[in-house]
Specification:
heterotrimer; A alpha+beta; B alpha/beta; C mainly alpha; B: alpha/beta; 26 helices; C: mainly alpha; two-stranded antiparallel ribbon; 5 helices; 25% helix
């Protein structure tokens, strides 16, 4: 049951669109920064597989410039 | 066990989030995450966050109103708004609480035989329309007047102007913004030819020095002040407070310099003298982009009825200006301004240092001034001489006090001399208005009539027989209410008041119309940095309440102007705005469309090709500059800004033996305008339940007055009794008293003087002579 | 001849050194002269004194771990105060009974920090300009009472004084001598319940207002 946190950077002007898309994802907690184009994302998934799927979904998002994993835990 | 597991998981999630946030903080120092402010707000639920601008001051913060089951239950700062970046002030956070006040006006009230009778709104509007029509038929167009507000939305101001100037054909339309920033307008027009600041709030992020001229921003523009403090803490930017009274802002600033009231004129000239004398003039900028003018002197104070003044600008040269400034050496000015030579030179050195970026901020201290226009010109002089203007972090910036003083009063032009584009005196502006309004050109009169103060004098004289007051409370806020309250009580004038709450103004009304509050209607506001903000209706208003614009339209229809006002009840805000936008087509003032405004937290005009113009007149940022040079002051025919020769002249009234104190009036952080809204918010009322008179401790000692004891403040016009406040919120200089004006039970404006700036006609609330008595 | 040449070089070097040094010395002096005059006297409002005092540390507070759970709680905060607003007693032995306080207290209590001996973070004093500490703060040298008393339990201001969900809480206590909010509401020594989430915003009373000016409930606004 992995829990991971990411920092997301996105293209200029894409904040709104990206946030909307992020909010629609399951198993995600979205924490946008107020004064920078950065979002902190915490994912909490039941299996490795869903985690991988989620990761792939993130990568495919439009307007995403950069995605970096900060920490990961495997809570059992 | 399950419970424990969940706790463990949520703990790990928190850890993961914290790790990511810490990493982000390392990359972007000072980063703020939204969740910090949302602590304690129940997630999910039925809370629906709706976007809009704040109802109160001219800063124009973006707010999000939490609506649950049709009721506003929370307010937070809009993190997407570049104005406030998610932060509000105490008034902003609690604003929607006022609409639940028990004495809310929910139905129309019509005065019959001395008492108010609850009347269906449509009958009340019939009465208003009938009375207005009858008055025009009997006494002519110029016997009816309308007094609106810097709190009116853009559509409301636009409809008021169209009804009065286009349909009826009278210039008897003025607004309370005359009392608030008229001097800023005339200052901009005389120096640059077009109104409103060239810079924007982003200047705060770039400037090295903030110089505030008679401006207590910590209390009056707290959100901007916090942005300045952030720069002070993060970058070491410096705040210099130039003031007549020690305030919370003085305490927070790096340096506070006190001056004698009215001598700001002399000090500003002394700064210019020092700049020239030390060779700090940006010669190429001045040669390429500036003219020198002088105007009339000894221009009077407007205390008499029907006062009239027109300035006569004359071109002069740099040498003549230099000779003029010889009277303003720091040594000479220090004698009467009570500012030390060292401090004058210090200020001049800040402006003169070519490596430091300086923003000047001011609001009522400079505008509510019998030489307000001059004072505005003088600060522009400083910035023009040094070329520190229209650049990120460099520029003069006039702040406003009302949410749409810029958007409605100044841009739509709800003044007697203005039209949505230009002035009534200009034929091409009248032709443009007539075309867009679809009224005959001859309908729009070419001569301005009454400005705010003169309008109420005309009511007193009996010249105005019908007045409609909307979204403002003049019988608390006008100067010398001791004259204008009895004037409004006279039977000669029929008074209609549209408001949300009963006020001392609605007390004298013949018809009271219940208005929708801010979030109970849609609308548009324009803030100090030229930002237009649109919001949609968020909650239903109680009873018969109606948006002000719709009241005007209903009355216009009843008067037979229905064809000119073909708007629908549901979408009138958008329809009116689309019509109004036609006035501002072009790179100098292009406004964003409703569709764009709907998506974003406000947009700065000129909005050209999908891009806001943050710094006007600078070719790098402003597409309207077309002279091929770095700067283009396109408001003036020759593209050059004007440096004005404006002397020091004394105030209208000075303390003497009989009346030994200066009286200064103003605001406190808790209350806004006349307090009719903020006092109905329990949190704010409890924090500041009543007005007070601030004394210097030594003056208090001399009169044997202790904190909290009742003091009577008396002028030649009237008196007001208030509890003394010593060493509390502010500290006036010796020989000065200060009183906040929000309290309708302690009307300090009975005491103030209705002297005004002859050019802008804006009254001076900051200087008159009073005596005090211990009660 | 060679000797003269070497001496000549050294003389030249010395002269150059003196020249460069004096030039930079004067340049430095000139800089200092052009530098804007230093602060002059400041007018003070007693009730506003210290409001912005600790703002210079705000950034440090802001980077502090938000989930830090060590330090005091509101309970331990009130343990050595007779009532809210009362000067706290000194819960630890003091160096020197002869001393009025001053530096021997301020060396720890002006800016705080971790003390290994007590395994605790030092609370920060909100009024470091008042140096006669022992005037109000006394040590506790016994736990017994001279005679039993019936009084002593006073209501403490509660937390969560918000009008709306999410709106800024009002200040539920008097602020005389405690105008400097960050002293008690930020940093590792602040009781965790009242530690502010946004210490970088130093203009506290922009959003948080006192509500007990009159010391009792004054009700809502009603027109006269």
């Amino acid at each position: 049951m992995p829990i991971k946190s990411y920092i997301l950077h996105f293209e200029k002007g894409q904040k709104e669109i990206l946030l909307k898309a992020l909010h629609q994802l399951e198993n995600c907690e979205v924490i946008p920064a107020q004064n920078h184009d950065v979002v902190v994302l915490v994912t909490d998934t039941a299996t490795e597989e869903t985690d991988n799927n989620l990761y792939n979904q993130l990568l495919e998002m439009k307007g995403l410039k950069h995605l970096s994993l900060v920490s990961g835990f495997d809570a059992k | 066990m399950i419970q424990k597991n969940i706790d463990r998981r949520s703990f790990i999630k928190k850890m993961a989030a914290a790790a990511a946030m810490t990493a982000a903080a390392a990359m972007f120092p000072g980063i703020i995450f939204a969740s910090e402010q949302e602590d304690g707000i129940p997630k999910g639920g039925n809370l629906d966050w709706k976007k809009g601008p704040c109802r109160f001051c001219g800063v124009g913060c973006g707010i999000l109103v939490g609506v649950e089951n049709g009721k506003a239950v929370a307010v937070k700062g809009d993190p997407n708004s570049s104005v406030n970046k998610g932060l509000l002030c105490v008034k902003g956070y609690h604003q929607t609480m006022c609409i639940q006040a028990k004495d809310r006006l929910t139905h129309a009230l019509v005065k019959k035989n001395g008492s108010y009778v609850k009347t269906p709104i449509h009958e009340a509007l019939d009465i208003v329309a009938k009375k207005m029509k009858q008055t025009i038929e009997k006494n002519g167009k110029d016997s009816v007047a309308m007094y609106t507000s810097g709190q009116s939305t853009i559509p409301e101001g636009y409809i008021a102007s169209k009804l009065m100037k286009g349909a009826i054909g009278t210039n008897n339309l003025d607004c309370n913004a005359r009392l608030c920033m008229a001097s800023a307008v005339t200052g901009f027009l005389t120096s640059f030819g077009v109104d409103e600041p060239m810079g924007c709030y982003e200047d705060i992020d770039h400037a090295d020095y903030f110089i505030t001229w008679g401006n207590n921003m910590a209390e009056m523009h707290p959100v901007l002040f916090s942005r300045m403090l952030e720069q002070k803490n993060n970058r070491g930017a410096k705040i210099i407070d130039f003031t007549t009274r020690t305030t919370r802002s003085s305490m927070a600033s790096n340096k506070s310099i006190l001056f004698e009231p009215q001598t700001d004129l002399a000090v500003a000239n002394a700064i210019c003298y020092e700049i020239i004398n030390n060779g700090w003039v940006n010669k190429s900028f001045v040669e390429k982009h500036c003219n020198f003018n002088k105007g009339k002197t000894k221009i009077g104070y407007g205390v008499e009825d029907r006062f009239n003044f027109t300035d006569e600008p004359q071109k002069i040269d740099f040498e003549a200006y230099k000779t003029f400034l010889k009277d303003y050496t720091p040594e000479k000015v220090a004698k009467y301004s009570k500012v030390s030579v060292k401090d004058i030179k210090y200020l001049a050195a800040i402006y003169g240092n070519p490596n430091k970026k300086v923003v000047s901020y001011w609001c009522m201290g400079m505008n509510q001034h019998t030489r307000g226009t001059w004072m505005n010109n003088l600060v522009y002089n400083i910035h023009l001489l040094t070329g520190k203007i229209s650049m990120p972090g460099n520029g003069p910036f006039s702040l406003t006090g009302q949410p749409s003083a810029c958007g409605t009063a100044r841009e739509v032009g709800t003044f007697t001399h203005r039209l949505p584009h230009g002035e009534v005196t200009e034929e091409k502006d009248r032709r443009m208005a007539a075309k867009i309004w679809k009224v005959p050109y001859a309908n729009i009169p070419s001569k301005p009539t009454y400005h705010a103060t003169e309008m109420f004098r005309a009511v007193d004289r009996g010249d105005i027989k019908f007045i409609w007051i909307q979204a403002t409370n003049p019988l608390v806020t006008l100067p010398k209410t001791s004259r204008y309250r009895p004037a409004m009580e006279k039977d000669s004038c029929f008074v209609v008041v549209s408001d949300v709450f009963p006020t001392p103004t609605s007390d004298v009304a013949d018809v009271i119309l219940p208005a929708s509050w801010h979030i109970e209607k849609g609308g548009l506001y324009g803030n100090s940095e030229r930002r237009t903000q649109y919001w949609k209706k968020m909650v239903e208003g109680p009873g018969d309440t109606m948006p002000d614009a719709w009241m005007f339209i209903e009355v216009a229809k009843r008067m037979g102007y229905g064809k000119l006002f073909p708007y629908s009840k549901e979408n009138h805000v958008e329809e009116i705005y689309n019509e109004y936008r036609q006035f501002h087509v072009g790179a100098k003032h292009e406004m964003a469309t409703i569709e764009v405004l709907e998506k974003q937290s406000g947009i700065i005009w000129p909005y050209v090709k999908g891009k806001s113009t943050q710094w006007r007149f600078n070719a790098k940022y402003d597409p309207a500059c077309d002279n091929g040079q770095d700067f283009h002051f396109y408001g003036k025919p020759d593209g050059k800004a004007v440096i004005w020769q404006r002397p020091y002249e004394p105030a209208a009234e000075y303390p003497n033996q009989e009346y030994p104190f200066w009286l200064n009036t103003g605001r406190v952080i808790e209350h806004w305008h006349s307090g009719s809204m903020t006092r109905r918010i329990p949190v704010l009322h409890k924090a500041m339940p009543h007005s007070y008179v601030e004394l210097h401790p030594e003056d208090a000692k001399k009169y044997g007055i202790r904190n909290g004891e009742k003091v009577k403040v008396i002028s030649r016009r009237g008196s007001c009794t208030l509890p003394a406040s010593i060493n509390e919120r502010g500290l006036p200089t010796k020989g000065q008293v200060f009183v906040p004006f929000f309290d309708e039970n302690m009307m300090i404006n009975d005491v103030t003087l209705d002297a005004f700036c002859p050019i802008s006609k804006q009254p001076d609330y900051k200087k008159c002579a009073v005596k005090i008595e211990k009660v | 001849m060679r000797r003269f040449f070497i001496i000549g070089i050294f003389v030249l070097l010395a002269m150059a050194a003196i020249f460069i040094w004096s030039k930079s010395y004067y340049a430095e002096k000139e800089e200092a002269y052009v530098e804007l005059p230093t602060e002059t006297e400041k007018h003070l409002i007693p009730s506003e004194m210290g409001v912005f005092e600790r703002a210079s540390f705000a950034i440090d507070y802001a980077t502090m771990d938000k989930n830090f759970t060590g330090g005091r709680s509101l309970d331990t905060y009130y343990k050595n105060r007779a009532f809210h607003g009362a000067p706290p007693s000194i819960p630890h032995p003091v160096d020197d009974e002869l001393n009025m306080g001053d530096k021997s207290c301020l060396k720890c209590h002006q800016n705080g920090g971790f003390v290994v001996k007590f395994n605790a973070y030092t609370p920060v004093v909100p009024h470091p300009e008042k140096v006669n500490c022992r005037q109000c703060h006394v040590t506790e040298n016994t736990t017994s009472l001279f005679k039993e008393t019936s009084g002593g339990v006073f209501p403490k201001p509660s937390i969560g004084n918000t009008a709306f969900v999410g709106s800024p809480p009002i200040i539920p206590h008097q602020i005389q001598l405690r105008e400097n909010c960050l002293a008690c509401h930020a940093g590792p020594a602040a009781p965790k319940e009242i530690r502010v989430t946004h210490p970088e915003r130093s203009n506290c009373r922009q959003c948080h207002v006192v509500n007990n000016k009159e010391m009792m409930d004054i009700g809502v606004f009603t027109r006269k």
